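Q: what sequence does this backbone want?
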């Protein structure tokens, strides 16, 4: 009889029952982990993208960048002769913003360098349960922080 067979033979009935109970718990945990992994891969990343893209943080950043692009385009139009056709100096034209290009560059850099609040919350709590993660995805109010606000508006 080798060493393992002797060890197994020396186990009492209650020890065997305890081992089977622990094996059942481990199997249940593995099943749960497999289910959670499947959800993360099949739905979780999509939920993250959806929650982030619907957040006020993301929409506000895009709106400010859109407005800055619009302002820069307006300035280009003025520069190309729009203001002279109306007999006004460029700086007297309504909506003229001499800082538009700088503001656009600043907003673009800020947007490119920002980490979404939702991702920060996930990274700050790497041991959060799947239920907590799902509730974070469902609640876009949790990502409504405005990390790109500032004095960029004309």
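A:
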């Amino acid at each position: 009889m080798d060493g393992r067979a002797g060890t197994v033979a020396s186990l009492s009935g209650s020890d065997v029952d305890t081992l089977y109970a622990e094996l059942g718990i481990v199997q249940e945990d593995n099943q749960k982990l497999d289910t959670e992994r499947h959800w993360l891969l099949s739905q979780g990343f999509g939920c993250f993208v959806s929650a982030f893209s619907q957040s006020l943080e993301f929409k506000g950043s895009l709106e400010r960048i859109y407005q800055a692009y619009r302002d820069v385009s307006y300035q280009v139009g003025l520069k190309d002769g729009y203001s002279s056709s109306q007999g006004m100096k460029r700086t007297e034209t309504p909506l003229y913003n001499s800082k538009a290009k700088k503001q656009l560059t600043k907003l673009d850099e800020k947007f490119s360098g920002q980490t979404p609040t939702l991702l920060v919350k996930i990274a700050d709590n790497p041991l959060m349960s799947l239920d907590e993660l799902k509730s974070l995805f469902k609640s876009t109010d949790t990502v409504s922080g405005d990390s790109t606000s500032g004095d960029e508006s004309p």
